[in-house]
Amino acid sequence: MTTLWERLKFAVATDMDMVMTKKEEKNPLAALNRFIAEAQKQTEMTGKWVERQAQLTVKLEQELAEASAMAEKRKAQLELAQASGESDLSRFAELEVAAYSNRVSELEHSLAENLEEITRLEQRFEEMQHKVKDMKLRQLQLMGKENAARANYQMDKVLASGFEAETLGSDNMSAFIGGLGSEAEEVHQRSTMEHRLESLKKNNAQQKEIG
Predict the structure, then answer these.
(1) How does residue 166 score in pLDDT terms, banded at 50, 70 and 90?
(2) By CB atoms within 10 Å of each CB, which of 39, 58, 72, 94 scores lowest?
């Protein structure tokens, strides 16, 4: 029984979601709201990737600086080994210089590519941010139009409802207002008469007591 009830609730909820989705699809503002939310999410993710690319650039620069320093160090050691006649040390230093020189060349190439790529990414990221801002502006414009449309609709219901003096007719309206005045005057006169009768009754009773 519980399983059946849960399945029934799920089916109803699914149907309601479908109905609301179809309803929102016909509403450009609702569709724009969903699109802006998705665009903001994608923009935030892209911002993180751009930031990571910048961090990679810093790392490449550090690696290049270290490789360049080691290449210069090995060159100086090679000159010293050659001057000292140390053939084995000279051979080792030559291999080291070649290795670090190749590393420097590769890092310089990678760094240049990365700098070019990050420049392109940052430009496109700026375009994304401008696009989101433009969509938010459009959102405000649509909200203003929707609000004005709703306000005009409510005002039209009152202004065009037909419940106005022209519909009732001036004579009917005057008779209605006059009737209200007559009723008020009648109530006032009745109240005055009742008060006088009560006073007369009271005075009569007092005279009997004196006589």
Answers:
(1) low
(2) 58
Nearest-5° angle of CA 161, CA 163, CA 165? Answer: 135
Q: How many helices (H) and strands (E) does the chain have?
A: 5, 0
Structural Rg of the chain based on CA atoms: 46
How far from the centroid of its chain's Cα atoms is residue 14's Cα?
Answer: 25
Q: Tokens 């007369």, residue? A: 200
Q: Which helix (H) or strand (E) holds 124?
A: helix 87-159
- The first and second tokens of residue 58, run together, are 């810093």
Which pLDDT tens digit goes with each residue over 23-65?
555 677 788 888 888 888 888 888 888 898 889 999 999 999 9
Please tell me the distance from the alpha carbon of residue 189 to that of residue 193, in angstroms, as a whole number: 6
Distance CA 184, CA 191 (A): 11
